[in-house]
Amino acid sequence: MKRNLFVKFSSYIAHITGQPATFTLAAFFILVWVITGPFFGFSDSWQLVINTTTTIVTFLMVFLIQSTQNRDTVAIQLKLDELIRATEKAHNALLDIEELSEEELVKIRKNYEKIAATARSNLRQGKLDIGVPEIESKIRKKKDL
User: Fold this and answer.
1) Burial (0-12, 13-18, 19+ Cβ within 10 Å), 67
2) Does the predicted TM-score (pTM) go above 0.70?
3) Helices 20-36 and 44-86, axial angle in degrees (round to 10)
C-alpha cells in the first residue's frame, strides 16, 4: 500500500512540475526573491533562503523524477518485448536484452550495424532496404543449389 501511494504521489508531482504554470510559479518565486534583495541588503541570510530552498527541491525532485523514469522505462521495455514476441520474424533472443552484459550488447549491436550498412548500400544501388537479411540469404542459398 505504501509503495502504491508513493507511485501515485511521484507520478502526480512529476506531472504537476512539468506544467507551464509550475515553471511560471517558480520564476515568480525567484523574481520575488530578487526584488526583496535590497530590502535585506543582499545579506547572507537572504542568499541562504534561495540556496537552501533550491537545494531541497532539487534533491527531492531527483528521486521523484528517477522513480517516474524507472516505471516509464520498464513499461516501454515491456511493450517492446511484446512487439518482438508478437512479430513473426523478430528475434526472440532480443527479449529482455537490457539484462545482457555490455560485451554481449556490443556483439549484437555490431551485427545490426552490419545489417544497417548493407541496407544503406542497397539503397545507394537502387535496391530495397527491407526484409530480413538472415532469411534472404537462406533463400539465395537455396536458389543457388
Assistant:
1) middle
2) no
3) 170
Give the model's pLDDT for residue 135. 57
Residue 57 C-alpha cell reads as 527541491
Residue with cell 500500500: 1
Angle at 132 between CA 137 and CA 123, to 5 degrees: 90
Instruction: Find, among 86, 93, 123, the residue nearest to 111 by Cα.
Output: 93
Q: What is the pLDDT of residues 7-49, one digit of tens each?
A: 888 888 888 998 999 999 999 999 999 999 999 999 999 999 9
Q: Any idea how long the chain is?
A: 145
Q: 5 to each of 9, 52, 61, 85, 137, how far by Cα in Å?
A: 6, 27, 17, 32, 53
Is the distance from CB of 14 to CB of 61 less than 8 angstroms?
A: no
Determine the Cα–Cα distance for residues 80 and 102; give it in Å rounded to an integer.
20
